[in-house]
């Protein structure tokens, strides 16, 4: 602030005012200007000092763009016609920026001087325009917002506002009640919201416009809108996120199974090699004893020993096949050839268990790309499992083989009418070392071995079962050699 009389009480009073105030003496020279007035004319900081003539103030204000020429001329005319009469005040409006205008008041002082005050007034029409612009901007932001936002009353659920993203996700129902698939979840949501006026990341089940339920998470705030409680909520669809999480879980499970098989393979390799030599001695001597004791009272016992020994041999071979992770010898093959080889291998077991094997693969199919030895072993394992299940439970008497072709894959379905598979173990049936057989009758290696071979073929194996008592169906998919 600039001033003439030091310590004057008038200076303190003028400085306190929110209006801009400039005081000129009887010779029309500036004697005082408060800081508010100086702030209104920053370009005149070197002019607004005591002693500056009124005419220079007006001229420099115009020259430096601080005042329109018309306003300067009006003020100059007021000063020229100034007669010093008390109680008279002249007013001039000076356009400003952003819909505002400056109101300048010119009035006399008792000492023959005059005062110029300046204040800012918001133009009502401009203020309305600014409000409309702000509302338009807010609407544009909400319309472009990718989040699903809704405003609804607490009492009756009536939707007051719904963003386009929310309309696409939830539809155009008049009540927010329709957004929830379960009434109980909506009640729980409101119950959690009311105490603290907020809810964050609450898991719920919502409904799409077509009535399909989907998992969602809702966050909300409770506000007062025109005198009533209103819920502002954001709803996020979790379908994709949960699908990604499920896929990650499946990949983790596959990695775990792979590591499990690798560790198991090392263990089985050591055990199999240690058992192979003494087992060969047992098998060899059993064959000799069978020849020497043929038609003797001991023949039946020797035969049981021989069967048990050969069963051990098959188990050891399965262990070694799983442990070695042998490289596939992929060749174009007739699938009927592999099916016939597997059927011939289990023909004795089929007869002993009184099980019929029905072929539904009579027509000619394109060649598949496969390792003949390993894929044949897969079919033998599956057929043997079906035979044992039927034989041990006394349920069923038939196994069906059916073939189809779908796009680039050959599909073989092995179905039996045996006891079936309990849903509780369906997801674990391909796990290494998992078996439903009694102790001593199963290793849990067979199906894990089958799955490993099919995956190495870039195919797959899956179980289709209708539950206990309804049989089991294993589906194998193997790539065609010439798709």
Automatic annotation (TrEMBL):
Q: Which branch of life, at top level?
A: Bacteria
Query: What GO molecular-function term can you cite, just one?
Result: ATP binding
Q: Give the signal sequence positions.
A: none
Q: In which organism is this protein found?
A: Aliiroseovarius salicola
Q: Known EC number(s)?
A: 2.7.13.3
Which residue ranges does the record assign to the Histidine kinase domain? 270-482
Kindly state which keywords UniProt assigns to this record, in alphabetical order: ATP-binding, Kinase, Nucleotide-binding, Phosphoprotein, Transferase, Two-component regulatory system
Query: Which PANTHER family does the entry link to?
Result: PEROXIDE STRESS-ACTIVATED HISTIDINE KINASE MAK3 (PTHR43065:SF10), SENSOR HISTIDINE KINASE (PTHR43065)
- Please give the InterPro entries that the UniProt record associates with this protein: HATPase_C_sf, HATPase_dom, His_kinase_dom, HisK_dim/P_dom, HisK_dim/P_sf, PAS-like_dom_sf, Sig_transdc_His_kin-like_C
The record's listing under SMART domains reads: HATPase_c, HisKA
**Protein name (record):** histidine kinase
Catalytic activity, per the record? ATP + protein L-histidine = ADP + protein N-phospho-L-histidine
Keyword Phosphoprotein listed: yes
């Amino acid at each position: 602030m600039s001033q003439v009389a030091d310590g004057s009480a008038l200076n303190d009073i003028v400085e306190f005012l929110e209006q801009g105030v400039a005081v000129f003496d009887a010779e029309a020279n500036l004697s005082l200007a408060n800081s508010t007035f100086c702030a209104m004319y920053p370009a005149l900081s070197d002019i607004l000092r005591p002693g500056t003539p009124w005419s220079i103030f007006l001229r420099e204000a115009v020259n430096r763009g601080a005042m329109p020429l018309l306003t300067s001329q009006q003020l100059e005319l007021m000063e020229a016609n100034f007669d010093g009469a008390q109680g008279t005040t002249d007013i001039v409006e000076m356009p400003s920026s952003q819909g505002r205008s400056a109101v300048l008041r010119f009035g006399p002082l008792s000492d023959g001087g005059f005062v110029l005050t300046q204040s800012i007034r918001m133009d009502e029409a401009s203020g309305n325009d600014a409000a409309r612009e702000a509302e338009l901007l807010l609407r544009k932001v909400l319309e472009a917002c990718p989040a699903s936002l809704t405003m609804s009353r607490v009492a009756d659920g009536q939707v007051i506002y719904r963003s386009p993203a929310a309309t696409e996700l939830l539809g155009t129902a008049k009540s927010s009640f329709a957004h929830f698939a379960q009434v109980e979840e909506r009640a729980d949501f409101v119950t959690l919201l009311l105490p603290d006026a907020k809810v964050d990341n609450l898991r719920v089940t919502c409904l799409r416009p077509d009535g399909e339920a989907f998992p969602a998470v809702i966050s909300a705030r409770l506000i007062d809108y025109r005198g009533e409680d209103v819920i502002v909520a954001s709803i996020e669809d979790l379908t994709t996120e949960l699908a990604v999480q499920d896929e990650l879980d499946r990949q983790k499970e596959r990695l775990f199974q792979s590591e499990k098989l690798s560790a198991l393979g090392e263990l089985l390799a050591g055990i199999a090699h240690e058992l192979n030599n003494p087992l060969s001695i047992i098998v060899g001597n059993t064959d000799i004893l069978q020849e020497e004791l043929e038609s003797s009272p001991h023949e039946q016992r020797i035969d049981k020993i021989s069967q048990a020994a050969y069963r051990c041999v098959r188990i050891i071979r399965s262990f070694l096949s799983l442990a070695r992770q042998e490289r596939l010898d992929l060749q174009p093959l007739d699938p009927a050839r592999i099916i016939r080889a597997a059927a011939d291998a289990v023909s004795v077991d089929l007869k002993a268990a009184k099980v019929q094997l029905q072929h539904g693969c009579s027509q000619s199919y394109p060649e598949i790309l496969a390792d003949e030895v390993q894929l044949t072993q897969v079919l033998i394992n599956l057929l043997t499992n079906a035979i044992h299940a039927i034989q041990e439970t006394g349920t069923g008497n038939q196994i069906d083989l059916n073939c189809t072709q779908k796009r680039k894959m050959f599909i073989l379905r092995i179905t039996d009418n045996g006891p079936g598979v309990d849903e509780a173990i369906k997801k674990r049936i391909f796990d290494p070392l998992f078996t439903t057989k009694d102790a001593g009758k199963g290793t849990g290696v067979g199906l894990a071995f089958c799955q490993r071979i099919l995956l190495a073929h870039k195919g797959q194996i899956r179980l289709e079962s209708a539950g206990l008592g309804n049989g089991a169906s294993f589906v194998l998919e193997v790539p065609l050699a010439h798709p």
